[in-house]
Amino acid sequence: MTFSTQSRHSLAFIPEAGFGEILLSPTMKGVRHTGCDLTLSKKTLESDEIRDDRQIGHFIHSLQSVSGDIDFEMSFGAYDELLAAALFGNWDGNVLKTGTQQQSFTFERGFNDISQFQVYSGCVVDELNLSVQAESLVSGRFSIIGKEMSQQGVPLDISPSMGADFAPMDSFKGSIKEGGNVLAHIAGIDLKIENDAKGTFVLGADSADEIVAGRSRVSGELTAYFEDNSLINKFVNADASTLELDLRGGGGSYTILLPNILYTGAEVPVKGERVVTINLPFVALHDDTECSNIKITRNAI
Predict the structure, then answer these.
(1) Is the CB of residue 166 less than 8 Å from the CB of residue 86?
(2) What are phi and psi of 245, to 5 degrees?
(3) What's 239's DSSP letter?
(4) What is the b/e burial string over 34-71, where b = at least 16 CB atoms within 10 angstroms of the residue's CB?
């Protein structure tokens, strides 16, 4: 018997024309990833019937849904379609902002060494996390929720296209600006985009009839080395500011602008003998000039 190995795992996707609609002969696109745990889950119903033998007589499968994460290393041009889906927007030339257009996808996980393929339909990007830390590659995670899963012995597309294949971006290139000024001594920054997407269920069906998103919430945390009180004062005084993150690598760069942020904390922990850092969580708000809480600009080279 052959056991499936993680090194033979593949992941592909295609946008859906309608929620949960799987094309008969789709042209799939491969997804570069470092991890994936997309899975089908089900709620259950337990009968309250009382029996004289004290046992449970009936246990029923109820509503089903898809959820899971796709982990990746940021690379220019490799995830533009999914970045747009995370913002519910569309690229306007080379600029992407928060929008209101929801795009669903079909994802396929391939366990190629045992010819088993899992197809997840009606999938929406619920969250996007990006992390830029010193001495590291830029890592990210797409959190997915979806409608349902099916299994088959052949892939939807035997040879999906892979798209851009540039090396992952790292923290040694690029820069961070705060309030328009370059911050030279930053230990790291984490960014999260949440859509608060939920499945909507109707009578007569055990899978979601549609997925409805809530408000766009952009937040994160900046970790800076403690040199003076300038950043702490922005939290104390509730001063609005801006953050601009420039990520560079083979093929081009992304500039992520948060045009209107408010710091929600300024912790200065001391738990050892090393350098002192300031942990500055923040939330990004709507900006009247950019008409968005976040703006991503791509620049090919």
Answers:
(1) no
(2) -110, 125
(3) -
(4) eebebebeeeeeeeeeeeeeeeeeeeeeeebbbbbbbe
Per residue in 117-138, pLDDT (tens digit) is 999 999 999 999 999 999 899 9
Task: State how beta strands 29-30 and 35-36 pair.
Answer: unpaired
For the segment 41-57, what is each residue's pLDDT rounded down to a tens digit? Answer: 999 999 999 999 999 99
Q: What is the pTM of this model?
A: 0.95
Supply the pLDDT for residue 79.
Answer: 98
Place of tokens 């913002």: 87
The DSSP 8-state label assigned to residue 23 in this structure reads: P
Q: Please report the pLDDT score of residue 1 as a whole number.
A: 65
Tokens for 280?
Answer: 């500055």
The two beta strands, 186-194 and 148-152, are: unpaired
Which tens digit of pLDDT belongs to each residue from 237-268? Answer: 999 999 999 999 999 999 999 999 999 999 99
Q: Tell me the C-alpha distance between 192 and 35, whole Å.
A: 18
With beta carbons less than 8 A apart as the criterion, state whether 138 and 74 touch: yes
Q: How many angstroms separate the CA atoms of 206 and 162, rounded?
A: 34
Strands 59-73, 35-36: pairing is antiparallel
28 contacts 157 by C-beta, under 8 angstroms:
yes
Which of the 8 DSSP states describes residue 114? Answer: G
Burial class (CB in 10 A: 0-12, 13-18, 19+), 107: buried
DSSP letter at 65?
A: E
> How far is Cα 222 from Cα 239, in angstroms, rounded to an integer?
16
38 alpha-carbon distance from chain centroid = 13
- Nearest 5°: the CA angle 175, 91, 123 is 100
Residues contacting residue 82 through CB under 8 Å, at least 6 positions apart: 13, 31, 125, 142
Is 2 a residue whose pLDDT tops 90?
A: no
pLDDT single digits (tens) 178-228: 999 998 889 999 999 999 999 999 999 999 999 999 999 999 999 999 999
